[in-house]
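User: Predict structure, ligand magnesium ion.
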Amino acid sequence: MRNNTLTQPHASLHAAAPPGPPVEISVVIPIYNEEENIPLLHPRLRETMERLGRSYEVILIDDGSSDRSAELISGLMAHDPRLRLIEFNRNYGQHAAVFAGFEHARGMVIVTLDADLQNPPEEIPKLIAKIDEGYDIVGGMRGKRRDSVFRKIPSWLVNRFISRATGVSLRDYGCMLRAYHRTVVDQIVRCNEISSFIPTLANSFARSVTEIEVAHAERKRGKSKYNLRRLLKLNFDLVTGFSLFPIQLISGLGILIALLGIGFGIMLMVLRFVYGAVWAAQGVFTLFALLFVFVGIQLLAMGLIGEYIGRIYSEVRNRPRYVIKKISS
Ligand code: UDP
Ligand code: MG
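Assistant: Predicted complex:
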């Protein structure tokens, strides 16, 4: 495993890195209507980072908040030169925000953190320590997760699924408290697909990935930005964006059903020869039931194909992932 030395001047390593003095650590935080959390987050993060004793910057991405989030951050920037603010012109979603943060990060190590204090910033040094050991990506794993069962069950399924689809087995893909080595982030920045899920994308470029347990708290202030609809969309993105498995599964099912149909036909024919025409008229309702099942599967298959085509369409249009209104640092 490579030894990730943090002290290397990063300009020489990465020509594409944005101008400005290199730092050792960049903390990237997406913000969407978090006015209640920002005043609490800032001192805790600052203290943790100061104690770590390495040069750092904090990149806050305001994802089109409609509350006073951006204003609050600008206020804090007057006293803290390490803060940088990127403002989107409207809401593009958490992953687009993190992407923007990656594009502007100058650190050798990039840490992502949610603004809602569910993942305590005090855990950052643990992640950094693992990166120092030589890992490319260190994922946080929410030890005792404080969310409702309605969040946990889909998460469990998705974690299993992505682990299989990507071949990198992690227990918690949903945790956004993560650290990445510069080399991984550089690759992510070069990807220009539109709907992306950062932890999965990152794993496809990493040499060594590890996971450590981090604390998890309830969201005390502000609301979760993910309702059921957004969660479904995210999971659909994830599943279709990173594998062809769903569509392959449907094809397999199709073959199986066709075989069953042929078997069924042969069976009916035999019965007709043995028992005569009377038997064939029965079981109409059973047939209806079978029909509904097959029609259902067909529609599902069409929907899935549509999903892939839709994705191809949006990639082909190649529209910008987000529009930045203003950058201040
Ligand atoms: N977030 C964002 N844009 C969005 C939704 C969320 O930047 O459209 C940010 C949000 O401010 C928070 C993080 O992403 O810092 C995680 O959001 P949230 O806590 O609502 O998600 P959950 O913890 O419920 O998964
Ligand atoms: Mg949260």
